[in-house]
Amino acid sequence: MSKKILVVIASTRPGRLGPAVADWFLQVTAPTTTELDLTIEVADLAKVGLPFLDEPEHPSTGIYHYEHTREWSRRVQAADGLVFVTGEYNFAMPATLKNAFDYLSREWAWKPCLFIGYGNTSAGSRGVQMARGVATSLRMLSIGGDIYLRIADDLPDGTVISKDSRTKYARSALGQLARAAEVMRPLRSEDEQIVPATSADVAELVVLQRACWVDEAVANQTLDLPALHESAVEVEAALHEWSVWVVRSAGRLVGSVRGKRGGEDWLIGRLMVAPDQRHRGLGQRLLAHAEAHAPGDATAIQLFTGARSTGPQALYQRAGYQLTAEGSPPGAVGLRKSIPAGRARQNSELNSTAPVFPSR
Ligand SMILES: Cc1cc2nc3c(=O)[nH]c(=O)nc-3n(C[C@H](O)[C@H](O)[C@H](O)COP(=O)(O)O)c2cc1C
Q1: Which residues, in sequence order, are CB contacts of 301 under 8 Å at separation 6+?
Q2: For residues 205 and 211, what is the distance between their CA atoms, to the nearest angstrom?
Q3: For labelling, which of 24, 162, 167, 226 has a CA lying 20 to 30 Å from the CA of 355?
Q4: 120 lines ligand 1 (CB under 6 A)
Q5: Contact (CB, 8 A) for 131 and 86
């Protein structure tokens, strides 16, 4: 499967060597890129133009107030592996690279990385060592096999001297990076964790609800759907009445579901996935997650959807639900699934990623 490699140029000062080093790497590895079906993108931090970290929230929340952060998040999130081209400033990585690291969190996670260091006597190795520690703390995997260039020997006039052995080494390093990116792919897909919603999610939940229920309004030929009208205050109030979970991708809220007890049953509602994020299993994961939180003594799970909402009905039926005529509001249908005896557990025992019983 095609993989995206992001080459990050760390230095930003006028007259820097960073772009020349990156150009050399891109040029000599071009044949490998085609062979391995890699797409290479360059993120030159001088052009990315991040200010010193100015986000109020911790990056692990994925809540980004500024467009420059969202853009950086999208670019890093899209990468399967990273190449950091970095010089050494005062025995350390340039502050611009550390700043670019600090902006994000889960976008870096479970991605392999390779360093190309350059400098004077140390050939940039002390800067790389420092950057490697930071990369590791962000759950990147430094695959080793890094490339080091001594400025006086390897790029005396500002361009990297061509050498067969170095070209071979660079191609092999990129090949290893691509292999690691492939092997680590399943870890990356788990990074979109389903977590309890908080007040900070309310604004995006309101928007997501509306985006998701437009289809339902069209399919059912009605605008009389609460999800289309609820205010932020009402959505916030629901956080107290229901257990609500959300999932973010690259910082953006892309899915949600909620559950609460209703008599003997566990009621599930508001299962939603952003229209552009559908057909990759998020809806099933959210449904399984909500099912897994059914109280230990609940005997069945119940949910409702539009009478003409064929897509959602098919999803629920695939997950083992059966249509029921009981208790549906006008224009809606109920779906129900029994909880097999002895399968349900108390919430406190639950592993949030493991459904108590399979959803299909
Ligand atoms: C602020 C500063 C500090 C530097 N400190 C080191 C150093 O500790 N070790 C080293 O080998 N080179 C050091 N150098 C020299 C750099 O290796 C060299 O200038 C290199 O070209 C920097 O990368 P850049 O051109 O992409 O900015 C330093 C350069 C600058 C501007």
Answers
A1: 265, 266, 267, 268, 291, 294, 321, 336, 337, 339
A2: 10
A3: 226
A4: yes
A5: yes
Helices within 56-139 (DSSP H only): 67-78, 95-102, 125-137
d(CA 247, CA 179) in angstroms, rounded, equals 28
Q: Give the Cα separation of 123 and 131 in Å (integer).
A: 14
Of all atoms in ligand 1, which is nearest to the CA of residue 21? Answer: 26
Best residue among 23, 85, 120, 153 to mutate for probing ligand 1's pocket (most ligand atoms within 8 Å of CB) is: 120
Q: Residue 171: helix, strand or coil by DSSP?
A: helix
Domains of the chain (ranges, CATH numbers): 3-189 (3.40.50.360), 194-349 (3.40.630.30)
Q: What angle do the packed helices 18-28 and 164-183 form, to 10 degrees?
A: 80
pLDDT at position 62: 65
CA 230/CA 232 separation, integer angstroms: 7
How far apart, in whole angstroms, are the C-alpha atoms of residue 278 and residue 283?
Answer: 7
What is the DSSP-derived secondary structure letter of residue 190? T
Which residue, 185, 196, 197, is CA-closest to 350? 196
Q: Mind listing the pLDDT tens digit for each residue in 194-253?
A: 889 999 999 999 999 999 999 899 999 999 999 999 999 999 999 999 999 999 887 789
Pocket lining: 165 vs ligand 1, CB cutoff 6 Å = no
17-27 pLDDT tens trace: 999 999 999 99
What is the Cα–Cα distance from 117 to 29, expressed in whole angstroms?
17
Instruction: Give whichever of 36-40, 184-188, 281-285, 336-340 has the largest mean pLDDT.
Output: 36-40
- Ligand 1 atom with the smallest distance to the CA of 121 is 11
